[in-house]
Design goal:
By secondary structure, this protein is an all-alpha fold. Helices cover about 75% and strands about 0% of the residues. The chain is built from 22 helices and no strands. Helix 6 packs antiparallel against helix 12. The protein starts with a helix and ends in a 37-residue tail after the last helix.
Amino acid sequence: MNQDTERYHRLRWWGLAAISVAVALIIMDSTIVSVAVPSIVESLDLTTTEIQWVQEVYTLVFAALLMVWGTTSDRLGRRRLLVLGVVVFVASSILCAFAVDGTWLIAARALQGVGGSMILPTTLALLNATFRGKERGIAFAVWGATIGSMAAVGPVLGGWLTSAFSWHWAFWINLPFGILVIIGVMICVPESRQRDAERFSDWIAVGTSVLGFGLLVFALIEGRAYGWWEATDSAPFSLGGFSVIPVLFVLSLLVLASLVWRERKRVAARKSVLIDVSLFRIGTFANGNITALTVSLGEFGLILSLPLWFQYARDMNALEAGLALLPLAVGSFLASGSIQSLSKRLSPVQMVRLGVLLEIISLAALALLIRPDSTLWVTGVPLFFYGMGVGFATAQLTQLILIDVPVEKSGQASSVQSTSRQVGSALGIAVLGTALFTTLRIGTESRLSDQIAADPKLGELVDAVSTSAGALIGQLSENPATAPIADAARDALTQGVSVAAWVAVAALFVGLLTTIPLGRRASEEMAAGNAREGGAEPTSRGGDADPTRGNGADPTTRRGSRPTSSRGGATPTTRGGATPTGEASEV
């Protein structure tokens, strides 16, 4: 083991910290910006359309480009692309802070999406290449806990920055953290890449992927605004009264189906591909991605609806609402700390199931107990256990998805699982958002049906409350004449949170069922793999120093162990049909 390899092995946990901060940057940014939006609107005088695109263009670009950067990182270098992504993300954050109008801000947010899409899959690929055995489980637990907790910490930080300073600091905050990430990654994380990879030529697949996922995420995000079937009155355009959204869904599915067909032909012809579809022959990878999509859909039940409820139904400011979400972060951190001890008794599959089950029970309890005047205990206790569920499920599901993937395919595989999560998240925003806001509108109207019949003008106020997602409740409650409308809207918004929570419970239950195909055999094989790799020598760190990796040997055969039957149905030398081409690290 040379001096550089020894240094990277010694500093690997500091490298994990740097990688986790990189993940925290992109998770916090979306929640911080959401809290800062009211101040941004006032400062830049944004239109309603501009407000929507400031929040959504980031997600759209992010999801559309994830598949591209996974393959790129395998060839260019995962650490190199991570650093480049952080640079782009920080530079675009500075541009956001200097924005003078909505167009500038939307363009800068789109560039942020480019940087964020570089960061997320490369962090996973680096963890997959750097850690082995039980240490890999701990690393993924920290990664998962970071995602869960930062989603709760973001509103707190955003509320404080916006209240104490200005909305500009919602973007300036990324600069110091970005510098820390770059320094930490360069010092503590070894470079890893697919050294002898063939020259990439599948540029048609790149365009197809961006178009297909872009159309899909756009349709999911904009469905409520355009109408899911019939066009809404506020839709920018329609097809003779019908919404364009169903057409976009069909087009996205056709484009993505053509992508899969093309990639299968190129794999069979041994040509370079954007995504090696033979990875889906690996059982843990294929089934794990289905689970990731459904679980991500359900997990947005709280992140979307509760901040609105805290601020509009409970009349909290942005900082108070953020603090009310802190139990989620605490639960997630505690779950990550207990992963190592629980891994001695439970396999990764069992921990995923435990996590999803905790999320289901917590959401169901919240849906049953929440009232317009509920105390923070009523929300805090379910949030705490929900956070524990996120901590258990997110990290271990990631480990489960990638555990049988050859390291030289880490970038591609990480991009696929990240895309599954993003599509699931977008689907969650669409489904749960529709449930929340539809219940708000219908519930308010039903509670005021007699008053609206007597005075039709009240219907306009009800529509305004629904359009504002409940933001007008506070103003209406201050006027005795409109206070009954505010009370009805407050009750309806609370009911909407409950309905959204039940929808999330249903989605999470489906996610729990999708873990069944992983089965006892997969659990036993992963536990055996962890036991074999738990005592791996330091030379195996970094995803490259193990001598078996340079010649494409299956990692399951290293250190003199006999080749086992393939995980996921592939032969030991190909693992899922992918021929190892040599994983190397530049240390």
